[in-house]
Amino acid sequence: MSQSKTIQDENWPRWSPRLAAHGGPRFLQIADALQAAVTDGSLKPGDRLPPQRQLAAQLDVDLTTITRAYDEARRRNLLEGRGARGTYVAAPKVELTSILDLSMNTPPPPDGVDFDDILKQGLSQVLMRTDNALLMTYHLAGGSDSDRKAGAQWLAPMFGPLDSRQIVVCPGAQAAIAALMLALTEPGGVILAEPMSYPGLRAAAAQFGRQIIAVEADQHGMVPEKLEHACRQHKPGLVFLNPTLQNPTAITMPERRRKELASIATRCHVRIVEDDPYWLLADAPPPPIATLAPEQVYYISTLSKCLTPGLRVAFVLIRDPHERARFLAALRSFALMATPLTAALATQWILDGSADSLIAGVRNEARLRHRMARDILAGRYSGAGDGLHVWLELPAYWTPSQLARAADSEGIAVTPAEAFATGGVSVNAIRISLGSIRDRGRLQAGLQRLSHLLARRPESFSAAVV
């Protein structure tokens, strides 16, 4: 059931926002209707909008709903206030920075969720319920009891009930990876990883003087026989795996392959670092490797890819108390603690259910964007239909670096395969991230521009001389 009201006055144009009974928050429906009217030309720059009280009366909603709708429309650069003269449709904003960033893996704005409101509500609850002095002082590394309990709740979909004492709260997954590298390996030691892997692993290894050796992978992930051979040959300190919606290939390792790798790691007495940032975004992912070899695997889950990078909070599951102590000692050498305020906000969101709403919204938006990418990129699309990125194999006439430079000249940022390479294998592909462009229309424009570029053969690119 829906209602339709027509707003008309001699001072403003006819405009008919429609509010659906089950269409989500009404203020967002009104803001969306405004955006649609501006897009289709029903409302034009300079048109005056109805006064908030009158629009509230016409739509039979409270004034707060209209105020929030107008605020959201201003945030989208749709409206501008002109003091006592009222509120008007804004002229199109000139984008001085025209780069369409398809290079950074960040979650998209959650579909149907008012992120600003959840942020304000969460911070308000944190400040009301917590001694502000505690939020602004030093804390022992590893997180408070409340933070670790929130971590146990966050990890429950993967593991079921957990002892919160087995969880360490870290300032992001990169800090956790670096600390595990320090705790588990010696200078000059070997780390095994897939040929295409998370760039942060390579960066940390370079800083700490560790050696990464690539182990062959196929369409299901790291090849078991190759892992066993590499373990016996190189005696690695750890194996790094990102088995769900792998960054960058977007492969989700099937359960059978996970069992095989866990069995080999146990036989060869080598630890696995399971970096699993996308598990909660995946459609029916297999159980983590850490459920198959609990004592052999260190499991990392970050909030940066499901909620927002600004929290800088990750949870690490380490079951053995002595190994947790080693990990904490390594972590304290460069990162004393997660920031108390953002850790408290993460805990608040997890415990009050806001995190679940945000994840659902991010998951929905990511799937909408994958459908868009599949439609625009047609036969070139090779994504999994969920997660934050697409691994795009290139036509033979393009190389990844060529394509990245050509895309940059077209105002598009993408990431070439070389950025992820841990070994000598050459892969003719790029990673496209679907979440970093907030506006879906701009994302569509970027993907269309990229599709047209892929269809052309490379030209010679030369810098202008000025």
Average pLDDT level: 91
The biggest sheet amounts to: 7 strands, mixed
**Tally of strands:** 20
* Terminal-residue CA separation: 62 Å
What CATH calls the topology of the largest domain is Aspartate Aminotransferase, domain 2
> Counting H and I runs of at least 4 residues, what is the number of helices?
15
The CATH architecture of the largest domain is 3-Layer(aba) Sandwich
> What would you report as the Rg, rounded to the nearest angstrom?
25 Å
Strand order of the largest sheet: 8-16-15-14-13-9-10
Beta-strand percent range: 15-25%
The computed structural class is alpha/beta
CATH top level label of the largest domain = Alpha Beta
The CATH superfamily of the largest domain appears as: Type I PLP-dependent aspartate aminotransferase-like (Major domain)
Show unreliable segments: 1-10, 461-466
Name the features.
7-stranded mixed β-sheet; Arc Repressor Mutant, subunit A; Aspartate Aminotransferase, domain 2; Aspartate Aminotransferase, domain 1; 3 domains; 466 residues; alpha/beta; disordered N terminus; 3-stranded antiparallel β-sheet
Condensed summary:
InterPro entries: Aminotransferase_I/II_large (IPR004839), HTH_trans_reg/aminotransferase (IPR051446), PyrdxlP-dep_Trfase (IPR015424), PyrdxlP-dep_Trfase_major (IPR015421), Tscrpt_reg_HTH_GntR (IPR000524), WH-like_DNA-bd_sf (IPR036388), WH_DNA-bd_sf (IPR036390). The chain contains 15 helices and 20 strands.
